[in-house]
Amino acid sequence: MDPRSRYDLALTYDWEYDKDFIRLVEESARGRGLTTLTVPPAGAGRVLEAFSSGELDFRVLLDRASGAAPDFVGLQALAAERGRDVIEGLDRIRWASDKATMHLEFLTAGILTPYTVILPAFAAEPDIGLKPEELAPLGVPFFIKPANTTGGSVGVVADAAGPADVLAARRTYPADKYLLQEKIIPEARDGKRFWFRGFFVLGEVYLTWWDDRTHLYAELGYDEAAALGLDPIYAIVRTIARVSRLRFFSTEVARDVRGRLLVVDYVNEICDMRLRSAHPDGVPDAVVARIADRIAAYAGGAAARERSA
After folding, report:
1. Using one digit for the tens of pLDDT, what is the confidence trace for 147-184?
2. Is the pTM of this model over 0.85?
3. In a domain? residue 97
4. Looking at the domain assignment, is residue 108 inside a domain?
5. Residue 132 belongs to domain spanning
6. What's the sign of the alpha-carbon dihedral 232, 118, 162, 158?
7. Lowest mean pLDDT among 49-53, 162-166, 202-206, 210-214
8. How far is CA 77 from the centre of its chain?
9. CB 205 within 8 A of CB 287
10. How far apart, in whole angstroms, are the C-alpha atoms of residue 160 and residue 145?
11. What contacts 232, CB < 8 A, 6 or more positions away?
């Protein structure tokens, strides 16, 4: 094979707003002397064919598109079959995206979460006879969340008050399990709500402030986090990485008015990496740049190990 056809890093994407992030990863990788192959939706079929035939190859695949089209799924499947390093495998994503599964795994791992009741799918058990007193520990209002129907708060009820709301929600996605979850009131100080988004990226943790009401981010460095007693969040995010088996994800952590650090949104397996400079509710540009550089560094390490083998 022509060595020019073997890329250090392949990147797939299917969301138009991913272009800036992909560009930053490419730039960082090329700055390290690495070769990159970017695969947009229109090129997925052609790249799959070339990869299948041996016309091209790659060491590491950052896949942000396999939930979108058969060609992307096929490319990831073949990459995994051939032993390429895939971030992330669909089997891991499917497992980690189940909120009910993650809730139980978190409890086993000692991760604090809001008080939660897990309900079976309506299609499996339509009449569960839920009584108001069983909901009392949740408080009012409480959240209702489908376990597997995710993305942009799809299916989430934020102001549930009783059994009627639960029944209506379960009927919305009857094949899905549901979580009833206590509504957390975060600590508030100096105009900030103590709600955070942590990004885990190939062994590194990056924290940001994230306002659960406005959805606006602000940078949060380690020194500031430590000064505010927030440094345990780093260990929490690393524990989530171990439990979820994912290498690139985000999670939400809040410090409530009682001083508890609670994981309130378990695993976002495909991180929204829009830049704040282009979108008001995007991630701070400096944080996105660090994440992009971490991915490039990882690909560089893989290339170096292969050359020295």
Report:
1. 987 666 678 999 999 999 999 999 999 999 999 999 99
2. yes
3. no
4. no
5. 115-182
6. positive
7. 162-166
8. 20
9. no
10. 10
11. 261
